[in-house]
Amino acid sequence: MTREVFKTLLLGLLVLSSVAMTWNILFYRSDFENYKSPSGSAKSVAISENGSRSASSVVAPTLFLQHSAGGVLGETRTSQVQGAYALIQRASFSDLVPVAYRLQVPARKNDLSYEVIFPAPLMHDTLKKIFGFNEKNTAIPQNVLIDRIEFYTAEKGGLIALFSSQDGRNQFFATANRIDLSVLKHLFARTSSTSYEREHLSGKIAYVPAKKTELPTVMFYYNLKKLDAFVPILFNDPEENIFHNRGKLMYTDGQSQLEQTGNVLQYVNVNPGISDNNQQLTDPIFHSYDLLNNFKEWTDDYGYAGLELSKNRKSETVTFRMRIGDYLAFNTDYYPNPFLTQIELTWKNGQLSSFNRTLLDLNPIDQPGSVSLDSGKSILQKLKAAAVPVSRIQDLTIGYQLAAPKGNNNYSLEATPDWFYKLDNRWYSATDAIIQKGMLGKERRSS
User: Where in this chain does the record put each Regulatory protein YycH domain (predicted)?
Assistant: First the structure.
């Protein structure tokens, strides 16, 4: 059997496994009935005809790494990352041990390991829903925030799954069953993978490409979802109890307000009250997914991309970001389109407090060109030269900059590849920062 035939058969098996996992996760027993939307979950409302997504396609890793003595190789192609993800979801985890100190982690047999990294941390309940923690004596520590899982062969035998936080600290490990490291090895396409380097950011260990990355620009045709389509979801008895400001796209019932600003929806509930169980959501990530999926609000391809928790967890914000190809999309023109490429839900006391999302519905029409992006190390050097406080950067990633709609009848948008960095919990375009520094330099020389 040739290697190509083996890879074809392997891919077929992974596709079947993925379908099975998708079915199980899509129809898992949701806790949505315990935490209803403002109008209640029984409403029969659909924002998009094809707006349902499986949990494993929304809450998913975006990077698949191979660690070896020769360095780190990475895959961002969705097909490869999802293949590894489906394989990992088939595993079961037992003998879980919280990590109290570094040497407690089992020694490695060799330098070979595989790792998946999520764009944002997963909470305790999210981990339980996605992965095979099915043994009664396998208790995941509470309050852990995990964004990466590494698999390696232990020196004493057996496969170890090491769960770590975004700052690189090991949180707990477990024995991984029903998974073969050699299958992950065959799944990893060395010929098309990219060398990656480890960068220490502020509170996060990031892996960035060691060489240039070339990606296509993408053109889209777009239309806007109508604001009134969301009224039945966000208000009780919308025909009687809400006031419509006819001079402005705005609805209110005296306590909650829904309005359209530019091309985004913004909803706020001034007094969200207290949930029926008188406590915060046990899982704001999956509850947010449930609400959006229940009303088929995935107008485009979205991925879980952000989590902010207040110290007492009275406020919990979950962000889903639009995906273009294999990368997340951004728009750094914060006014008047602060949520042009994302959906953001904030929960207070277990109830929806604010809801902000794009109204764009995109359809790709062309790939008119391509952009060559610098390596991660090179872009950090350029940002430092542009007076960006690199030591305070919280995250760094390649993505797409989606242009804001123009004020004319041209219903097309362009998405351009770029580097993006997170500073003070806000995303910025690296190209904009570098160009602005150059323009300021020219102004100083000409004055």
Answer: 4-429
